[in-house]
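Page 37, continued from 36.
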């Protein structure tokens, strides 16, 4: 009888962790140890939802900051957030295949990064259609402005600045400034 009780307690602590910051903020992250990897010196604000399902995997490396009300969700896919990156208030990162965010990246508030899109065939209801899934890569030293959407198959090369409210749908060349819907070249960074 004691053995069953001990296994249940161990199972609970393996799946659910509660972090206390400054004795006021309380953060709860539900995770399975093998599916979510957290580096050192990570700052996670309150109401952050980090979860995996269906074999998804999340790797958050050292010195990453995640502000309040963010959602980081890996369903099947893998999310990697590299060192010294910042995820702004209310942002969503959702992967069915792969989303990689490089070092020193700044993702501003309310940005949405998703590697899947719904199909849009006329002959089938939208909610019944399968997704188009393509990986997203955001390289080092990138700044993504507030309310930006990054869609499936996008690649944002090193040193890019994406203006607020832009929609990124394709490859963006290194050290450029882009903006608009869809995001277009504005100028080179000097």
């Amino acid at each position: 009888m004691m053995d069953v009780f001990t296994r249940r307690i161990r199972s609970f602590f393996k799946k659910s962790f509660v972090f206390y910051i400054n004795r006021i903020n309380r953060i709860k992250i539900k995770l399975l140890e093998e599916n979510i990897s957290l580096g050192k010196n990570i700052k996670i604000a309150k109401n952050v939802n980090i979860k995996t399902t269906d074999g998804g995997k999340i790797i958050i490396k050292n010195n990453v900051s995640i502000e309040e009300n963010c959602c980081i969700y890996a369903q099947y896919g893998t999310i990697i957030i590299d060192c010294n990156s910042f995820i702004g208030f209310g942002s969503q990162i959702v992967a069915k295949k792969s989303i990689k965010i490089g070092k020193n990246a700044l993702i501003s508030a309310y940005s949405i990064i998703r590697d899947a899109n719904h199909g849009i065939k006329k002959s089938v209801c939208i909610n019944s259609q399968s997704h188009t899934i393509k990986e997203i890569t955001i390289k080092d030293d990138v700044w993504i402005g507030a309310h930006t959407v990054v869609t499936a198959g996008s690649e944002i090369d090193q040193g890019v600045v994406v203006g607020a409210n832009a929609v990124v749908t394709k490859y963006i060349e290194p050290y450029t400034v882009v903006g608009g819907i869809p995001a277009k070249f504005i100028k080179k960074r000097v």
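The longest strand covers residues 16-21. Flag for discussion at group meeting. Residues 35-188 form a domain with the UDP N-Acetylglucosamine Acyltransferase; domain 1 fold (CATH 2.160.10.10).
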